[in-house]
Amino acid sequence: MLKFGELQSKRLHRFIVYKMDKDYKEIVVDQVGDRTASYEDFTNSLPENDCRYAIYDFDFVTAEDVQKSRIFYILWSPSTAKVRSKMLYASSNQKFKSGLNGIQVELQATDASEISLDEIKDRAR
């Protein structure tokens, strides 16, 4: 939660990826991207065969030329992940997410096309 606060209020990070520890008992920080990290850096940080919770701070400019930011919460659950992992992440999702005040857009994704940059831009508006 401390890292989320740093992303949200201090804007120290571009993204945070969380994972469950090896015993599936605790959610821990897996990776953190600094403010200069690209969206590609973020998507590359998500494993192909395992689930993750992710926060992404997306900056964009509106049609009125106003700089804005949206904080995305993404449940990454690829179809290639193990069934046990998918079930545990899904069952813990609501409780974990409820502790993150300030999320503006939520997504659940099973493959990269569901979190493409175009999809993120569309959802940010």
Task: Give an overview of the whole structure.
With 125 residues, the protein is an alpha+beta fold. The chain has a single domain (1-118), classed as Severin, CATH 3.40.20.10. It is built from four helices and five strands, in the order H-E-E-H-E-E-H-E-H. A five-stranded mixed β-sheet has the order 2-1-3-4-5. Strand 4 (67-76), helix 3 (83-98) and strand 5 (105-109) form a beta-alpha-beta unit. The radius of gyration is 14 Å and the shape is globular. It starts with a helix and ends with a helix. This is ADF-H domain-containing protein. Belongs to the actin-binding proteins ADF family.
Order of strands across the main sheet = 2-1-3-4-5
CATH topology: Severin
- The stretches of 5 or more residues where confidence is low (pLDDT under 50) are none
Per DSSP, the total helix count is 4
Mean pLDDT: 95
Instruction: Give the biggest beta sheet.
Output: 5 strands, mixed
| Overall geometric form | globular
How many domains make up the coordinates? 1
| Level-2 CATH architecture | 3-Layer(aba) Sandwich
Task: Give me the secondary-structure category.
Answer: alpha+beta
The arrangement of helices and strands along the chain is: HEEHEEHEH
CATH homology group: Severin
The CATH class label is: Alpha Beta
The percentage of residues in β strands lies in 25-35%
Q: What share of residues is helical?
A: 25-40%
Gyration radius from CA atoms, angstroms: 14 Å
Number of strands: 5
Terminal-residue CA separation:
26 Å
